[in-house]
UniProtKB/TrEMBL annotation:
Residues 495-652 form the Thiamine pyrophosphate enzyme TPP-binding domain. It comes from the Bacteria. Residues 278-382 form the Pyruvate:ferredoxin oxidoreductase core domain. This is Pyruvate ferredoxin oxidoreductase alpha subunit.
Length: 764
């Protein structure tokens, strides 16, 4: 698709630079050259890199886009919609469950006709969780009212991102646009690309940002956006929206022709490869179509008239072009990386069939195959199999099996995995050495624990063999907390490093029942589990021990995107524990900034450079937020103070079994992303405690108690003493960043003094 820079110059095209880049890099490049006003985002693999690249470019002063990290994809969609309503140019990128989490916002934006561009880096929608690429997320977007372009290569990602904005803002369209490309296949694989050397060429092409619309931007011209409508008005609104999206098909052709003049690259509505006289053909989206073209060439050499069809736009669906392309095709196989369960074929299969219905002379036999789910590779041999199926149908005059899955493998009962260890439960996890009693005078629990050596005989809750990085503090912290829990547990792990590294089908490191749900809904899910257990037990339908404890493990951003669910669960008072491991970022997706990241700290989305000094705002105090819900017990802990953490584990179990919801926060190390030495994990978290950045305390029945005071122990250290251990914070120790360090120190001191005041005044 790309052509030589010398040839472009000779043809009088705009000057371009030839290089090798990935789809995500080219999406970021296009956004930076356009210089959008706003990007509201939340990291999710494999689209995360787009925001990371833009953050890196911003540290170098290569664009002025305001990058706003949201608390979740739903929030990012709200940020984008609010910005678009002002007439600002808005950009976003997401994938899979991130798209589904924001999906209720998408029809709001298209229905009120505010343009923007969003890159959908396609990925399997869980469950079960699979982070690799298919089109199951894309198919959910088909009915949102957004224009949808599809990009097969990194070059197409760049080009279509530029065209997308011009289409979105066109007076005949005024709709948001999705640019969809394959996760990992296109997003991460580097290929030869060309981009405009002068960003002014791009900005001249997209033109000035339109202002002739009812935006929320001028107090002298008040507007009401999204007013409630009756049925009569509502159908008129949707008719206009429908007309606009069909207009987008015409506008796409106009914009593509205009873009070809400055780039030398053409994007027809349908990419037709050797379809002029084709008798058998494959209809494939995005990267799979590229794999099939070589096979079509090989079949041509054998005298078989084979071709490949791949659309560059699927909303609006180009029915007229498809009818024209298939006029003489005898058999077509539509391959799709998603299914429409129960419909005897996925979405595009039915849309192709529907298009052909309007041509009564068409006799094309249409086969449908679901393939490549969860990122399963599509090789030339697979394209050959697809062609073989189409050829067989052509020769027989009918499709023996019109719809089927391709590439699935029947299970073999003889190869079922056997448990490596016998199930451990009940008394196995009871040491009998921990004593927890309520002191009626103080209304606080008294906890007695034995020497740590005595608890080593208690089995670990998580077996060896998990995939955590060397030096990871998650499991050391969790296991220490679990030493304080007696008896059976049921855990729910939200998505994050702790979940990903302990479960990889068909294996698990969990010795007792564990379930998973997504970041945003773990607490609510476990609350349903708790209540179901209790109700089933009340009815006599199950037998479980009275001391079973339900624990939700969260981290890696789970208390950002999942904050609403956690607060709702706390307010309802379910008998469970929410335990957060705080590694100060979204480590499972590549060390992006979280709301728990302290100010000035470097992450992959809060870079350090001449234009930026790490995260721009202070960290979230989750423990205090949860304490404000008036749950019976809140605590903080650290593996560097093991007796303190074990006691708090015992208290947490008692309150969760007898009173209601408990929340705990453990600071744990992440050497990989903190850029610290594996050996210093305990040293670093101990320094965090002794610097008063991460104080150890509990809020029991509303009363705050500091359980370790470094000042009283004469062990308080400066914040710098903690920061020096980590590569992500060493820039804060430089003279030019002294004001930022002083601001950080002032905030830590303010929070510490406030905590002391609460400790000394029980009514606070």
């Amino acid at each position: 698709m790309a052509i030589l820079e010398e040839k472009l110059t000779a043809q009088g095209k705009a000057e371009q630079i030839s290089t090798f880049e990935s789809g995500n890099e080219m999406a970021a490049m296009a956004a930076a050259q356009i210089n959008y006003h706003i990007m509201g985002y939340f990291p999710i693999t494999p689209s995360t890199e787009v925001a990371q690249f833009l953050d890196q470019m911003k540290t170098r002063g290569e664009h002025d886009i305001k990058l706003i990290p949201a608390d979740g994809e739903h929030g990012s969609a709200g940020i984008c919609y609010g910005a678009a309503a002002t007439g600002a140019r808005v950009f976003n990128a997401t994938s899979a469950n991130g798209l589904l989490y924001m999906i209720e916002q998408l029809p709001v934006q298209s229905g009120t006709r505010f343009p923007m561009v969003m890159n959908l880096v396609t990925r399997a929608v869980s469950g079960p969780l699979d982070i690799r690429g298919d089109h199951s997320d894309l198919y959910y977007a088909l009915n949102t009212g957004w224009v949808i372009l599809t990009a097969k290569t990194p070059q197409a990602v760049y080009d279509m991102n530029i065209m997308a904005l011009k289409i979105a803002e066109h007076s005949k369209v005024r709709l948001p646009v999705i640019v969809a490309y394959d996760g990992f296949f296109t997003s991460h694989q580097k290929r030869r690309v060309e981009f405009f050397k002068d960003r002014n060429i791009v900005q001249q092409f997209v033109g000035e940002c339109p202002t002739d619309y009812n935006f929320a931007r001028d107090p002298k011209k008040p507007v009401t956006i999204g007013a409630h409508m009756s049925g009569d008005d509502f159908i008129n609104n949707h008719f206009q929206q429908s007309e606009a999206i069909y207009n987008a098909g015409e506008v796409f052709r106009e914009v593509a022709a205009e873009y070809a003049k400055i780039s030398g690259r053409e994007y027809p509505v349908l990419d037709l490869y050797k379809m002029e006289d084709a008798e058998v053909a494959l209809f494939l989206l995005n990267s799979a179509a590229e794999s099939a073209k070589d096979v079509a060439d090989q079949l041509r050499e054998k005298g078989i008239k084979a071709g490949v069809i791949s659309p560059n736009i699927i909303r609006p669906f180009p029915a007229d072009k498809i009818r024209e392309a298939l006029k003489n095709v005898k058999a077509l196989l539509v391959g799709e990386r998603a299914d429409s369960y129960g419909a005897n074929g996925p979405n595009l299969t039915h849309e192709v069939k529907s298009a052909l219905q309007d041509d009564r002379e068409n006799q094309t036999i249409v086969l449908s195959r679901v393939f490549g789910l969860g990122g399963k590779d599509f090789y030339a041999s697979d394209a050959q199999s697809f062609f073989d199926m189409a050829i067989d149908a052509m020769e027989k005059g009918y499709a023996e099996k019109p719809f089927d899955y391709y590439g699935h493998i029947p299970g073999n009962p003889e190869k079922i995995l056997k448990p490596v260890i016998l199930p451990q439960y009940g008394d196995v996890f009871k040491s009998g050495l921990i004593d927890v009693k309520m002191d009626e005078e103080t209304n606080k629990l008294k906890v007695k624990i034995p020497p740590l050596r005595a608890l080593t005989s208690k089995p670990k809750r998580i077996a060896s063999g998990h995939g955590a990085c060397p030096g990871c503090g998650i499991f050391a912290g969790l296991e220490l907390f679990f030493k304080g829990i007696e008896g059976d547990i049921v855990t729910l792990f939200q998505t994050g490093c702790a979940y990903v590294t302990t479960t990889s089908y068909p294996n698990t490191s969990h010795k007792q029942t564990m379930m998973h749900n997504l970041f945003q809904n773990g607490a609510a899910t476990l609350s349903g589990t708790v209540e179901a257990f209790l109700e089933l037990k009340r009815r006599g339908e199950i037998e479980v021990s009275d001391d079973a404890t339900f624990v939700m493990i969260t981290g890696d951003g789970g208390m950002d995107i999942g904050m609403g669910s956690a607060i709702g669960t706390a307010l309802r008072g379910h008998k469970l524990i929410m335990l957060e491991y705080d590694n100060e970022g979204y480590m499972n997706t590549g060390s992006q900034m979280s709301y728990s990241t302290p100010i000035g700290h470097m992450t992959s989305t809060s870079g350090v450079g001449k234009k930026q000094r790490g995260k721009a705002f202070h960290h979230k105090d989750t423990a205090q937020i949860m304490a404000a819900t008036n749950i019976p017990y809140v605590f903080t802990g650290s593996e560097s103070f093991p007796q303190d953490l074990i006691k708090k584990g015992a208290k947490a179990q008692w309150y969760a079994q007898n009173v209601g919801t408990v929340y705990g926060k453990i600071l744990i190390t992440c050497p990989l992303n903190w850029k610290s030495d594996d050996r210093y994990g305990t040293t670093i978290v101990e320094a965090a405690v002794n610097s008063c950045f991460f104080p150890l305390y509990e809020v029991e029945q509303g009363i705050t108690t500091i359980t370790y005071n470094p000042e009283e122990k004469n062990k308080r250290i400066s914040l710098s003493e903690w920061l020096k251990y980590m590569g992500k914070t060493k820039h804060l120790l430089k003279d030019e960043n002294k004001p930022l360090l002083e601001e950080f120190e002032a905030e830590v001191e303010k929070r510490w003094q406030r905590l002391i005041a609460k400790h000394e005044n029980p009514m606070l």
